[in-house]
Write a structure and sequence with these properties.
The structure is a single chain. The chain is α+β, with helices and mostly antiparallel strands. It has one domain. It is about 35% helix and about 15% strand. The strands form four sheets. Strands 3, 4, 5, 10, 12 and 13 form a six-stranded mixed sheet that branches. Helix 3 packs parallel to helix 7 and helix 4 packs across helix 8. It is globular and about 50 Å long. About 50% of the residues are buried.
C-alpha cells in the first residue's frame, strides 16, 4: 500500500479532530481527546482552550477599520459581478435543518482552525460582512501555518474576540493552533466544540454539501445557509504583512480583493435574509437577487 503524502496526513488529522466527539477509533490519543471533548460538552462549555494560541498580534485601529468599512455598495457590486467559478455563495439548507439562534437573534456558527489557509481566507469576508451588522472587539491578527499551501496567509483571529449585534449572534471555535508540534506531528488542539456544535457538524458536514467529512471552514448560519469551504482563493496575499494585505483586500482593484469583497457581499445578502432585512441601512442596499443567494437548492 502506498504511503500517504504529508498533505493527506494533514487532512486526515484535521478530519479526525473535527469529529472527535463522535469518532470510534482505537488510537489512544483519540480516545483521550474524545473523553476531554465529551466532558467539556456535557458541561456545556464551548470555546475552552486546550492549548495556548500563538502568533497573535494587535491590529492598528486604522487597518482594522479599513477592512470593516468597505461600503455595502462595493460588496454588493462585486457579488453581482462575480463568477460562481471564482466565488462560491453559501449553500441553502433544507427546511428540516434545525434553526440556530441565541439571545433572540439568528446565530452564525463558525468552526475553523488557525493553521488552515482556507480559514484565513474566509475570515476576511466574514469580518467585512459581519461588521455591517455589529461590532467586533479584540480582533487580533495572525497567519495560517508556514507548513501549508499558501503559507503564512495573513488573517484575523477570532480566538478571544467578541461580537456584539442587535441582529446576529456569532459563535466561533478555532480547533487548532497555527504552530506545528514536530514531536506530536500535529497542530495542538486549541478549542473544543460544544455538544450542540458537534451535533450540527455531524449532521451537516456531509454530502451533498461537502465531499470530505470534517471539512473546514464550516459555517452554519441560522439553520438557513451553510459554508463548508472557503468561498474564494486568497493565495495572492500569502506571506504578506497584514497591513499590506489589508490595503490589497480593500482596494477593489485586484482579483483577490474583488473576490473577497464578493464573498462578503454574498454573506451580507444571506445575513439580510436571516435578519428579515434588518438593519434597513444595510439591507436596503442589497438587491433582491442577492438576498438569500445560494449555490444549492433546498432538498
Amino acid at each position: 500500500m502506498p504511503r500517504a503524502s504529508g498533505r493527506q496526513v494533514t487532512a486526515q488529522r484535521r478530519q479526525r479532530k473535527v469529529y472527535l466527539a463522535s469518532a470510534a477509533v482505537g488510537l489512544l490519543v483519540v480516545i483521550v481527546a474524545f473523553a476531554l471533548v465529551s466532558t467539556l460538552a456535557n458541561k456545556s462549555s464551548p470555546n475552552v482552550a486546550a492549548a495556548k494560541a500563538e502568533g497573535l498580534y494587535p491590529l492598528p485601529s486604522n487597518v482594522l477599520s479599513q477592512v470593516q468599512e468597505v461600503p455595502v455598495s462595493t460588496l454588493v457590486a462585486n457579488a453581482e459581478a462575480a463568477s460562481p467559478n471564482d466565488v462560491r455563495p453559501p449553500e441553502k439548507l433544507p427546511p428540516k435543518a434545525p434553526q440556530l439562534s441565541s439571545g433572540g437573534h439568528p446565530e452564525v456558527m463558525f468552526i475553523c482552525a488557525e493553521y488552515w489557509p482556507s480559514c484565513a481566507a474566509e475570515r476576511w469576508a466574514l469580518v467585512m460582512a459581519l461588521s455591517k451588522f455589529g461590532t467586533f472587539s479584540n480582533l487580533m491578527g495572525t497567519t495560517s501555518s508556514s507548513r501549508e499551501t499558501s503559507p503564512r496567509t495573513p488573517t484575523f483571529s477570532f480566538y478571544g474576540a467578541t461580537y456584539s449585534s442587535k441582529y446576529l449572534t456569532l459563535i466561533t471555535d478555532e480547533l487548532e493552533t497555527n504552530r506545528y508540534n514536530p514531536a506530536a506531528r500535529e497542530y495542538p488542539l486549541l478549542q473544543f466544540p460544544s455538544r450542540q456544535e458537534m451535533s450540527i457538524i455531524n449532521a451537516w458536514d456531509v454530502a451533498p454539501y461537502t465531499t470530505k467529512r470534517g471539512s473546514i471552514p464550516f459555517a452554519y448560519m441560522g439553520g438557513k445557509f451553510l459554508i463548508t469551504s472557503a468561498q474564494y482563493d486568497a493565495s495572492a496575499i500569502s506571506q504578506m504583512k497584514f497591513q499590506t494585505a489589508a490595503g490589497i483586500m480593500t482596494s477593489g482593484k485586484s482579483t483577490v480583493s474583488k473576490h473577497a469583497e464578493a464573498a462578503a457581499g454574498y454573506l451580507v445578502g444571506d445575513f439580510c435574509a436571516l435578519t428579515h432585512d434588518q438593519p434597513t441601512s444595510v439591507c436596503s442596499q442589497v438587491p433582491s437577487s442577492l438576498v438569500g443567494i445560494t449555490t444549492l437548492p433546498a432538498t
